[in-house]
Amino acid sequence: MRQSKLFTRTKKEAPADEVAKNAELLIRGGYIYKEMAGVYDFLPLGLRVIQKIENIIREEMNAIGGTEMRTAVLQNREVWEKSNRWSDEVVDNWFKTQLKNGGEVGLSFTNEEAFSNIMKQYISSYKDLPIFPYDFKNIFRNETRSKSGIMRGREFYWKALYSFAKDDEQHSVFYEKIKQAYINIFKRAGIWHLTYLTFASGGTFSNFSHEFQTLTSAGEDTIYVDENKGIAVNQEVFTDEVLDTLELSKDTLVEHTAVEVGNIFSLGTKFSTPFDLNYTDENGEEKSVIMGSYGIGLGRLMGTIVEVLSDDKGIIWPESVAPFRVHLLSLGEDETVLNEAERVYKQMLDNGIEVLFDDRSGVSAGEKFADADLLGMPVRVVVSNRSMKENGVEVKKRTEEKGVVIALEDLLKSLNV
Ligand code: ATP
Ligand code: MG
User: Fold this and answer.
1) Probe ligand 1: pick from 259, 260, 301, max atoms within 8 Å of CB?
2) How far is CA 320 from the centre of its chain?
3) How many Å apart are CA 207 and CA 201, to the nearest integer?
4) Alpha carbon distance 279, 246 (integer Å)
5) What residues have a C-beta under 5 A from ligand 2, the ion?
6) CA nearest ligand 1 atom 10, residue
7) Rounded Cα gap, residues 53 and 401, in angstroms
8) Per-residue pLDDT band at 146 (split at 50, 70, 90)
9) CA 43, 49, 53, 58 torsion-angle sign
């Protein structure tokens, strides 16, 4: 993509009311636009990051048998009355609205009811199980806290998968698989080194749920990490009894602030009972379906990456989620330089390299460098009089201080094309 065609511009300052680093850097880079507190638009660069994250999650969900679908945002009151979650006294963060011809609808704040209600149509026998439908969707919550940028939105984009199994054993097999899939996702997203599988409260049907908590001062949770075992305990279940059960000792646990980037939850029959979600087993007996829920906030994950992978100059995207792998800069207005930069751009496109080409005229070298640092593509490639004198292009990784001039062929080789 040519930067001259990108309608977004970088900014020196973020809005004064924005306190979160993720939002500050993403707004300054033109990745997102702030509509209002807790509500953000994803601009072209930001959408590319979300789409990369979405594809990683999709691949990992499909690899363990997930089937993608899309549930509606407008929700039916009757369905939610079945699980007793329509009332504002039970759920205080609903957004609801009136229909012109009478009645009320709600905007999804979660998906258990929608999935349970739909799956009831398709589950009748043990042969129908297990199934693992999931969707990506915008979720709406009337949150009172919204100071964490895209890490806590009133409207946010998530992935939610629900598992439907015939018994605890079938459920557990999948639960362990998705745990591993989540580890893969956070590894691929570049934050696993700071992320811990965390024991949290489990509700009525299991002792614990599992959260994936990433260490960052921008988080809102307190967790206790056992570095050697590579696991953590959420403050909400931090009792002597729980530590005994998990064979953890206070002496080796260290307190940290962290953000929940994902969670996995055994639901037991919590939703299958109110929705009469039953099946006939091998012996003709009617049994309740055993469910689980598994969420990841894509905006929260993107915000977390920015919080933990950035420096005073800007963002440092991991290659897997960067909007472009290469940021190509042409410096100065010399025709020979411009022609050479065009040639390099074309070669990169021909070789399938995702490249953002800063072809803007009348923008100083200093400004182009500052923008490249702020936007944070993994590799910066500069074409200038200097690089041309040395018969190459200047290459610098975002994590490095100094660039080196190398031949274009060698660069293409090192980019594995
Ligand atoms: P939290 O404890 O942070 O309030 P939650 O436990 O309510 O989150 P879930 O309802 O289980 O979260 O949602 C699943 C995932 O969606 C979370 O793990 C998180 O990644 C993301 N998420 C939840 N709330 C928000 C929000 N307001 N903005 C952005 N992402 C969110
Ligand atoms: Mg939570």
Assistant:
1) 260
2) 12
3) 7
4) 34
5) 260
6) 110
7) 28
8) confident
9) positive
